[in-house]
Amino acid sequence: SHLGGDVSPVGATAPAASVVSGNIIVDKVSTPSDEQDFEFDSDWGSNFFLDDTDAPVDSGALAPDTYDVSEVNIPAGWALSDVSCVSSLQDTESADSLELDGGETITCTFTNIQVSPLVIVKTAETSYDREWDWTIDKSADQTSLELAEGESFGVNYDIDVVSTPEDINILVAGTVTITNPAGNPEVTVTSVEDVLDSSGSVTLLCDQEIPATLSADESINCTYSESVSDKDDTLNTVTVTTDSELVPGGEDTADVTFGNPVNLIDECIVVSDTYSEGPQGVVVCNDDADEEKT
Description:
Blueprint: E1 23-31, E2 38-42, E3 48-50, E4 57-58, E5 65-67, E6 69-72, E7 78-87, E8 98-100, E9 105-114, E10 119-122, E11 125-140, E12 157-180, E13 187-196, E14 200-202, E15 205-206, E16 212-214, E17 218-227, E18 235-242, E19 250-255, E20 263-265, E21 268-271, E22 282-285, E23 292-293
C-alpha cells in the first residue's frame, strides 16, 4: 500500500548530512612594526609567510578536526613573545591543538618582539707610585798609610750616590655595566668574568648577585680595583653569558695604559758626611744619582 512520503528500499543507505566546515585565521603582530617575514607551519597546508603589514592568512574551509599551527625558523634578532587563539564559539584554544568545530572560526595571533644583545661597557684606569732605594758608597784614593810620628797626609775620597727606582702600589681599576636593552624580554645573566691579559682574573663587586635576572632597560653595575705585581697588562676583557639564545651575552674590552706615577717616594735625599769637613746637607735627587761627590 502507498503510505505516502519517501520510501527507501530495505538495505539502502540514507543520504549523508552535509558537513559544516570551519576555518582558522593566522595573524602576525611585530613590535616594532616591521616588514620582516615570519614563517608558519600548519597541518592543513603548505608553509606560509606573514609580516606585520600583511593581511591575516585564512585557511579556507576545513572539516571539523584538530589542527595545529606554529611559527618556525624565527629570524635572528626576534623572539616570539605571545600566541593568542580566540574562538568564535568562545572555546578555549591553543595553537598546538586547535579543536575546530563546524561553523567555528579560530583566530590565532602570533606576536614577536625585536631583541638585542646585552649592552656591555667596561672601563680601565691605572695608578701606581714610584719609590727610590738609595745606596751610598765612600771610597778613598789611598788604601793604607805609613806615617811617622807627627806626620800628616791628605787623603781624597769620593762619595758615590746611586738610586734604584721601583714601581709599587700598582692598581688597575674601573667599572663594568651590563644592560638589557629596552624592549627586550627578561633574561638571566649567568656569569660575568673579567680578565687582565697578563695578571689574570679580576674580582668584580656588583650591585646584584650573579646569576641575576634583568628586565628590559635594567642594568647590573660592577666595580673593581685589582692590585697587580707589574705593569705588563695591556688589555682588560669582560665576558658575559646568559641563559637565553634570544638575548645573548657578549664581551667588551678596555686598553690598560700606564702613565706617570701618582706619587714619588724618596725621589730626593739629603746627604751629610760623617766627616765634619766633608759634604754636608747636599740634596741629591734621582736625576743627580750616579754622580760623585768629592
